[in-house]
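Hello,

Our lab assistant flagged a job as stuck in the queue for most of the afternoon. It eventually completed. Since we weren't sure the result was trustworthy after the delay, we are filing this so someone can double-check. Below is the sequence as submitted and the structure that was eventually returned. Let us know if re-running is recommended.
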Amino acid sequence: MRQWLTLVVTVWCLCCSSALAQQAGSDQPDAEIKVVNAPQDQAIAARLSEIAGSIAGLEGVQISVNAGVITLQGEVANAQLKDEITVIASRLEGVVHVQNQLQEQLAVRSRLEPAAEKFREMLGTTVQMLPLLLLAVLAVVLFSLLGSWLARRNGLLRRLGLSELATNLGMRFVRLIITSIGILIALELLDATALVSAMLGVAGVIGIALGFAFRNIVENYLAGVLLSTRNPFAIGDFIQVDNMSGKVMRLTSRDTVLMTLDGNHLRIPNSQIITSPMTNFTRNPLRRFEFTVGVSVELDLVPVRQLAINTLQAMPGVLTDPRPRALVLELGDSAVSMRLMAWIDQRETDYLKARSEAIRLVKAAFDDAGIEMPEPIYRIHLSKKSGDAAINAVAEALTPEPTATKAVATTDATVDVGNDDTIEQQLNAELDQSDEQNLLPAASDKAASKAG
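-- returned structure --
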């Protein structure tokens, strides 16, 4: 029994000693770590030398390893190779540190050698792909010629009633689509279809930039297409856009050229004509002129109106259907305003001449009939009177000077209301001399009539 007790005490003492020894070892921070089967320096150097020899430009690198520290010496072609060999060396097993003492080659020949090598590789690849390259070029040329041939066959679009500008625009789209198909086939032959996505992306960015840069030009061009398709006016038509008016000379892809009644050239952007109210005075040959006249408030307006209507009906150039009209507008302080209206045929009668003669004849008729057309009456009140001299001076200042005749005598001169072709002659001369593009359909008709 005593022996067993002794044995238990001895085992307990040994266990306590072992635990104390382990605790003492864990408290030492600089305890040595034993490495088993650590790689040798010679093996690291040999492995890195094999890797460097397999990479172009690193064949002359000198490698030395001591205690896991790699030292790289020598010259490399560029900084990229210098960084790459450093990364590769640090990834080897057993490497503690990498000392990169490599130098970049500064000689021109060494700098040009990689580029020359790449050029030789590209040249060899090009020679190998020469048959495919020739087929790709042939596909682009054939489809481009096909697109040009189809672009000249615009008879179908002409039969649809499209204008020349719209037809040309449609044919350009056809040619672009056919040529693009040829380019896609060429890229497929060269196995470069990935380039299509890059090209489309670049084309989209360029399209957005050009759209902002040439927005006005694109707007005017598209407006020219719409104007040439809708034909709201023809050559020689008298139109008004906003406060600008004149006779149409030509329609281009950018603007519309008018000749004003002063003989000047007026260019209006097509986009402004599309977005602004436009009046065509020539499209309807019948046109009404009107003017206002004032008569005395003491007169009977029924015979006055009838006299004005009879005068207009008897005037040359004035149509009987629709018949002239006289309307009472308003009752003023000293006169009654009447508006007289009459219709003419612009193909035979000039608008401005007819209105001018109508005013003259109505005034002459009113003068002959004794119809007074009074002037405005003003009343002056004097706050202070300084005697008869001041009153006489004011009265003398307000009294009009006597005239030789009360009214100009009416002559029996012939009424001239014929068309004034001065602007038409200048317009035709300009059309004959100018070689500028004209998209109006009337231009071809006029040229055909001249040739006939």
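-- support follow-up --
The delay was a queue issue, not a problem with the job. The result is valid. The mean pLDDT is 76. The first strand starts at residue 62 and ends at 66.
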